[in-house]
Structures are given as structure tokens and as C-alpha cells.
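Researcher: We plan to redesign the surface later, but first we want a full-length starting point. C-alpha cells attached.
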């Protein structure tokens, strides 16, 4: 049996070089995390605005119906 010493018992792991695929995966994950954070921030802002808007309007009030525009006949159509 070999003699256990500090150098044989605790070997320093060699740092593994980052492959192109590892780098791509890391970058894609960072981009996706950033987009998710931005989307969540935007969603929370829009949700807050919607809730504030809904709180300001009465729930039982019906939205006003748009008035129908009536077309006026031109003088040439009525005369002819």
C-alpha cells in the first residue's frame, strides 16, 4: 500500500476547459434568465396598473355604447 501524504490524498482537480457547447449553453441560460426577469417585471407592472384601473371604476357600471353615426345625404343625392 502506498503511503498517504498530503499530495497523494488531496489531489487538486485540474480545471476543465470550457467547451464551445458549454459556453453556448451558459450564454443562452443567461439570456433566458434576463428575458424572464424582464417579462416578470413587465407583467407585474401591467397587473398593478390593471388592478388600479379596475379599483377606480365601479364594477356594476356598464360600458357606454358607442353612438351610431348617421350619414347625411349630400345635396346632390336629395335633388336627383
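Model: Full-length starting sequence:
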Amino acid at each position: 500500500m502506498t503511503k498517504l501524504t498530503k499530495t497523494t490524498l488531496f489531489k487538486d482537480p485540474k480545471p476543465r476547459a470550457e467547451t464551445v457547447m458549454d459556453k453556448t449553453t451558459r450564454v443562452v441560460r443567461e439570456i433566458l434568465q434576463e428575458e424572464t426577469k424582464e417579462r416578470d417585471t413587465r407583467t407585474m407592472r401591467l397587473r398593478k396598473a390593471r388592478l388600479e384601473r379596475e379599483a377606480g371604476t365601479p364594477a356594476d357600471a356598464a360600458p357606454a355604447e358607442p353612438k351610431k353615426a348617421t350619414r347625411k345625404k349630400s345635396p346632390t343625392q336629395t335633388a336627383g
